[in-house]
Amino acid sequence: MKTTPYTETYNIYSSDVCPEVQTRDEKIAEIIRWADSFAPVVWKIITSNKSQAFGKNSSLYVGWSQGSDSSRAILERLVTFYRNLQADEFGKTYSIDSYNMHVWSANFTLEHFEDKGFTGGFFKQWDGKYDRGCAFLDFTPDTLPTVIEHFVAWCGSTFETKAVKVDKQIVWTAP
Predict the structure, then answer these.
(1) Which domain does 45 fall in, by range?
(2) Nearest CA among 119, 124, 92, 123 for reference residue 108
(3) Rounded mean pLDDT of the chain?
(4) Does 1 reside within a domain?
(5) Residue 99 lies in a domain
(6) What would the pLDDT profile of 145-158 be if each residue is shown by its tens digit?
(7) How far apart are CA 66 and CA 74, in angstroms?
(8) 17, 75, 111, 164: least CB-packed within 10 angstroms?
(9) Does residue 94 fall inside a structural domain?
């Protein structure tokens, strides 16, 4: 038998803010670089529970990465959050009449995460008889009317929206 030594060299990219988050993938390294440019906001969003829509325990994330503090789980949440910030593959922007709620919600969270009173909740559309559309969304006391407006638009007209509940409490009723 013959033994041949083999050496492989590769680059490891790691965050300046969360050095334990590392990758060898250059495309994901760009996302880490992007997150570091927003330091520390993006890292706080995905590693804390302050954001119910995109935080550490958000239902948005696939099971194994939800709630874990491992480097790989944090990286998975970062990539998912980043992808949710993107309008779409054509760079389309969305109006309240026609848009992707996840894109709007992710951008809203990034913009308002450090605002006073920032929190999140489980929004439900009430049609007078049943809860219909639902989503975890973030808001502040000052931005709640805007978030409700976007939520109602996202629910659409399949069912009449008579009220909106956040964490089981009615916060808005149709005029």
Answers:
(1) 13-85
(2) 119
(3) 91
(4) no
(5) no
(6) 999 999 999 998 89
(7) 9
(8) 111
(9) no
Please state the domain count of the chain: 2
Q: 22 and 73: one domain? A: yes
Q: Is residue 33 part of a domain?
A: yes
| Residue type (1 letter), 146 | T
Question: Which residues, 6 or more positions from 113, have their beta carbon under 8 angstroms from its beta carbon?
Answer: 41, 44, 45, 50, 51, 138
- In the prediction, which pLDDT does 66 show? 84
- Region 104-113: mean pLDDT is 94
